[in-house]
Amino acid sequence: MTVKVIRHKRRKYAAFFVTPEGIELRIPARLPNRTVEAILHDHKDWINDRLAALPHVPALPSDTLLFQGKTVPLVRRKNIDTFAFEEDTFICPDTWDETHVRAAYERFLRVEALRYVTARSLLYERTLDVRAKKIRIGHQKARWGSCSSTGTISINVRLMLAPSEVLDYVIAHEWAHLIHFDHSKAFWSTVASIYPDVKAATSWLKANGHTLQIKKTN
Predict the structure, then answer these.
(1) For 48-55, which contacts have Cβ atoms below 8 Å and span 24 or more sequence positions?
(2) Which of 54, 60, 94, 121 is the most exposed place for a label (fewest CB within 10 A)?
(3) What is the pLDDT of residues 131-181, one digit of tens each?
(4) What CATH code is carried by the domain that includes residue 86?
(5) Greatest CA span in the chain, whole angstroms?
(6) How many domains are contained in the chain?
(7) Regarding predicted confidence, which is higher, 2 or 117?
(8) Distance between CA atoms of 70 and 84, rounded to whole angstroms?
(9) 185-194 vs 164-176: helix axis angle to the nearest 10?
(10) Phi (first) and psi of residue 119, to 5 degrees
């Protein structure tokens, strides 16, 4: 892992951010390259310490992708032009590079996540008698889900890589926030009423959450 430098038009100063994928240096769009190099040099020891402290993400076998807690083979075929999931196998054109595969993979996960979360939400709507204003699928780096004050539920697409019961927990957690906008005893009681095995799911996320990365290794 290395430092990823990201330029932002509206950013006024440089700042480091530690993410599950590594370290990002976010800088003003017009900051000179020599200044960027100086910042990286001056913070070299800090960067090395932070990189060393990041949890190890085991590499997947060649041509495999994660989906709902399973390692799924990726097969490249001639004479096709789309990405598909058939019979527990991902399929893509043999001409695609890693960038194409990753983009198509994430699109697939977003579609499946919205379908899954919407279906699961119908159950929680009936059980709790409360409805979300909107369901959104995002790609957050630090949060698995959120519930806004206006009733929008956001779920991290990376949870489609986890076992389905873990995703069920996060959906239940955010759905309970539609009733209790806090983490009170009443909130946790509501979560437990629709998802009883909270401890197992939270323990799994704590131990394995860092492995849920949308990427492919060759």
Answers:
(1) 50/16, 50/18, 50/23, 51/1, 51/22, 51/23, 54/1, 54/18, 54/20, 54/22, 54/210, 55/20, 55/210
(2) 94
(3) 999 999 999 888 999 999 999 999 999 999 999 999 999 999 999 999 999
(4) 3.30.2010.10
(5) 59
(6) 2
(7) 117
(8) 16
(9) 140
(10) -65, -45
Check: CB of residue 156 under 8 Å from CB of residue 139: yes
pTM for the structure as a whole:
0.71
CA–CA distance, 104 with 82 (Å, rounded to integer): 8
Q: Which domain holds residue 161?
A: 64-211
- Structure tokens that stand for 64 in this block: 């495999």
Q: How many residues does the chain have?
A: 218
pLDDT tens-digit profile of 75-116? 988 888 999 999 899 999 989 888 889 999 999 999 999 999
Q: What is the pLDDT of residues 186-205, one digit of tens each?
A: 999 999 999 999 999 999 99
Q: Who's near 174: CB < 8 A, 6+ residues apart? A: 145, 146, 147, 153, 154, 155
Shared-domain flag, residues 43 and 113: no
Which residue in 154, 140, 66 sits closest to 105, CA to CA? 66
